[in-house]
Specification:
CATH topology: Multidrug-efflux Transporter 1 Regulator Bmrr, Chain A
Number of helices: 2
CATH architecture: Alpha-Beta Barrel
Strand content: 25-35%
Order of helices and strands: EEHEEEEHEE
CATH class: Alpha Beta
Oligomer: single chain
Strand order of the largest sheet: 1-6-8-7-3-4-2-5
């Protein structure tokens, strides 16, 4: 069981790559996007100030719209596929998922049920911050992913 809470999050500037792809191509977007953002941020002399994230502007349908990137220390200038972005601020449901990325769906189902029981209206967008590096932590049962789902 995951612990859920409502708190206020601050808006955060970021550098991102946006895509809309079939779910099967999502990993490729993350790999390509994170690499491109890191290159652009380094070239512009800024700092990454938080973990990588995947922002979902809407629930997946036949395809998934995703914005992948990192929080950064200053506004980036658009560079190729990399562009500035802002993670929204405001009240949100927060949780930490422990386990594989494939098991995130169960945590989202729990979150939606919990929000309904608390009479909370969830916004259409949500995001995940990836606190674990699968390359450094090969055991997916230990991976930690923060979920932030703004309230409508």
């Amino acid at each position: 069981m995951v612990d859920f809470r409502v708190d206020t999050v601050q808006p955060q500037r970021a550098a991102v790559v946006k895509a809309e792809v079939p779910m099967a191509e999502l990993r490729t977007v993350f790999d390509r996007g994170f690499h491109a953002v890191m290159q652009a941020v380094a070239a512009q002399g800024f700092q990454v100030v938080g973990p990588p994230f995947g922002f979902y502007p809407r629930m997946p349908r036949d395809t998934v719209a995703v914005v992948v990137g990192f929080p950064v220390s200053a506004d980036v200038t658009a560079d190729g596929d990399v562009e500035p972005f802002e993670l929204p601020g405001g009240r949100a449901v927060l949780a930490t998922h422990v386990g594989s990325y494939e098991a995130l769906g169960a945590t989202y189902e729990e979150l939606m049920s919990w929000a309904e029981s608390e009479n909370l209206d969830l916004a259409e967008c949500m995001w995940e911050s990836y606190l674990s590096d699968p390359g450094a932590e090969p055991d997916p049962s230990t991976w930690r992913t923060d979920i932030c789902w703004p309230l409508a």
